[in-house]
Specification:
Transmembrane segments: 7-35, 41-58, 65-98, 110-138
Radius of gyration: 23 Å
Distance between the termini: 83 Å
Keywords: Membrane, Transmembrane, Transmembrane helix
Strand content: under 5%
Length: 139
Amino acid sequence: MIIIIIIIKIIIIIIEVVVVVVVVVVVVVVVVVVVVVVEEVLEVVVVLVVIVVVVVVVEEEVVELVVVVVVVVVVVVVVVVVVEVVAVVVIVVVVVVVVVVEVVVVEVVVVVVVVVVVVVVVVVVVVVVVVVIVVVVYM
């Protein structure tokens, strides 16, 4: 009887470990995919911003154009770095939560999705604001 109880407890521990590993892998994959997608979107935004800046500033001096392009590129690079750092922090936090607290898989996925959506929205808003400011300043 005691042996059966011990075997059942070992099976339960193995199942918990497998669930934790699966959740961690899923979270890492989701975050990596989101980071890659965000980077691709940001690259497109950079090209669009540069085109807008070139079109708006065509009549201005070359020095001003170079300054504007450099500023836009620096802002976008900073945004990309911030997004990557946030993604790494999200991965670490989720792994710690899953391992320490043993949260249910669904809750972890929901938390990750919400955090990622918030990060993407913030990035898009920042980029749009920068583009609008650049266009308004140099019109």
